[in-house]
From TrEMBL:
SUPFAM superfamilies the record matches: Plant invertase/pectin methylesterase inhibitor
UniProt superkingdom: Eukaryota
A GO term, aspect molecular function: enzyme inhibitor activity
Name of this protein: Pectinesterase inhibitor 3-like
Domain spans labelled Pectinesterase inhibitor: 6-141
Name of the coding gene: LOC120263614
Length: 147
């Protein structure tokens, strides 16, 4: 599997030596995804009103919700002990990240269908795609913890 690093570089998935390294990587990706979703929210504010279709207007709420959910996942993952892993907290983080990924994907599709209405569109697409990749990576590492 090829994943994107929070710094933006692509590489093969890091070798997991322990549950604690998987938890740490899941938390890092959730944090990076939250930041990227916040950047997407800021980019969304720059889209001119005439470009805002109903689907894109929904993204104001969805992207903010995603950033919040990913922030919650980041906080929980940062507190989880690896011995033993609190599966309830891990399940909560997975649920929040999964919901965020759904919202981000919905908005990415809506913005791509918007067409070249604004010069801010490309930055928004980039931020949404990055947030989606980081969220997917966080979910990957969460799934490795669950075994």
């Amino acid at each position: 599997m090829v994943i994107s690093h929070p710094a933006g570089k692509y590489s093969a998935a890091p070798r997991l030596t322990s549950k604690s390294s998987a938890i740490e990587l899941a938390a890092r990706y959730a944090g990076a995804a939250s930041l990227s979703a916040s950047n997407a929210s800021a980019a969304l504010q720059l889209i001119p009103a005439q470009c805002l279709t109903g689907q894109v207007q929904d993204c104001f709420v969805l992207v903010d919700h995603s950033a919040s959910q990913l922030g919650r996942a980041y906080e929980v993952l940062g507190r989880i002990s690896s011995d033993p892993v609190d599966m309830h907290q891990l399940d909560d983080a997975a649920t929040w990240a999964s919901a965020a990924l759904t919202d981000l994907t919905t908005c990415l599709q809506a913005v791509r269908s918007m067409g070249p209405c604004s010069s801010s569109r490309e930055e928004l697409v980039r931020s949404l795609a990055e947030a989606s990749r980081h969220t997917s990576n966080a979910l990957y590492f969460i799934s490795r913890i669950k075994g």
